[in-house]
Design brief:
The complex is a heterodimer.
Chain A lengths: L4 H21 L3 H25 L4 H30 L14
Chain B lengths: L1 H14 L4 H23 L3 H21 L3 H26 L15 H22 L19 H11 L2 H22 L10 H5 L4 H10 L6 H10 L2
Classes of the chains: A mainly alpha, B mainly alpha.
């Protein structure tokens, strides 16, 4: 038999918290994107765990869609980062206050 | 509290009769995942953060294999570690790798303790709710069984192309939109012909176009301005 699902869920909760913490305290936009990826991975781990616990393949299908959405998000997000970099030399989130007026 | 801990954590572990191989694999993979995640958060250099992210992704792939999700483990390694992290590294190298962020500087006073407190509160809430509350779930196995005989790829593919066929098609539209958006974002803004060979050749028009570009220089990129200043005299 395998490990109980509660261990995976607890690990996913801790992983999600680390990602959220990094998203809140880091200022480099690229590292903030990586923290979003950490949070998405925690959600994926939860989906796979519930797919096993409830004996439903739909959880794994949902992970498949999350992967696609993550890839699209990274492509558009990094395109925005490059476009910002072309205008100004640094990409810390504190400097992006162009709409402040 | 001790009885709660025993009832919620130790008893399920003993009840499932997990083999020591499974327990050891899970422990090592969980340690790799958490170490990589902490490394992403505290690494000063973005390249190191990306490599730590690769470590976390491999650990999650091991956890997928441990839960009989073989196809997703392969996709995790190929798509995440092979494509997304390479895209991250490509952008980091493109923008310059020597930009390290000093983690010590805190521009918003008191933001980090507040963020850490909020995250700790949320994590504690989730864990406590998971330990003490009862789970209510809906109808079981809507899309087909995940466990049991048969290959994982077969079951996943059958579910994707029957039950989830319409979301699968919508996914293709999402990818097309992402590609078009990336192309539009990466496109250089159209300059008014001042830095092309025509503007240099027609000497009479340089001043006029130079004025136009300087007036619009606030919204165009700085490289265009430097080129114009070289051309104008």
């Amino acid at each position: 038999m395998t490990i109980a699902g509660a261990w995976y869920l607890g690990l996913a909760a801790v992983l999600f918290s680390i990602g959220a913490l990094g998203l809140l305290i880091r200022r480099n936009v690229l590292v903030m994107f990586m923290c979003v990826e950490l949070m998405l991975n925690a959600a994926n781990l939860t989906f796979v765990t519930f797919a096993r616990m409830m004996n439903d393949i739909g959880g794994q299908v949902l992970v498949f869609f999350v992967l696609v959405v993550a890839a699209a998000e990274v492509v558009v997000g990094l395109g925005i980062v490059v476009a910002i970099f072309r205008r100004r030399a640094n990409a810390t989130a504190d400097d992006l206050h162009l709409m402040k007026g | 509290m001790v009885t709660l801990l025993h009832g919620a954590i130790i008893a399920p572990l003993a009840a499932t009769h997990a083999s020591w191989t499974d327990i050891g694999t899970f422990a090592v993979a969980a340690a790799i995942v958490l170490a990589g995640a902490i490394g992403v958060v505290i690494a000063r250099n973005p390249v190191h953060a990306a490599l730590m992210l690769v470590m976390t992704l491999f650990g999650v792939a091991v956890l997928f294999v441990l839960q009989r999700a073989d196809f997703l483990a392969a996709v995790q390694v190929i798509v995440y570690a092979g494509a997304i992290v390479v895209l991250f590294l490509f952008v980091i190298m493109f923008l310059g790798v020597d930009k390290t962020e000093s983690v010590k500087v805190e521009p918003l006073r008191g933001q980090r303790p507040l963020a850490a407190g909020l995250v700790a509160l949320g994590l504690a809430g989730v864990l406590i709710l998971g330990l003490v509350s009862h789970w209510t779930t809906g109808k079981a196995s809507v899309a087909g069984a995940a466990n049991g005989p048969g290959s994982n790829v077969f079951k996943l593919g059958r579910s994707v192309f029957t039950t989830y066929l319409f979301p699968f098609e919508v996914t293709s539209a999402l990818l097309v939109i992402a590609v078009v958006g990336a192309v539009v974002l990466a496109r250089r803004p159209p300059t008014t012909g001042s830095d092309g060979p025509d503007a240099i050749g027609a000497s009479g028009a340089i001043d006029a176009t130079g004025e136009t570009v300087d007036a619009a220089g606030d919204i165009s990129d700085p490289t265009t301005e430097t080129i114009d200043e070289e051309v104008a005299p």
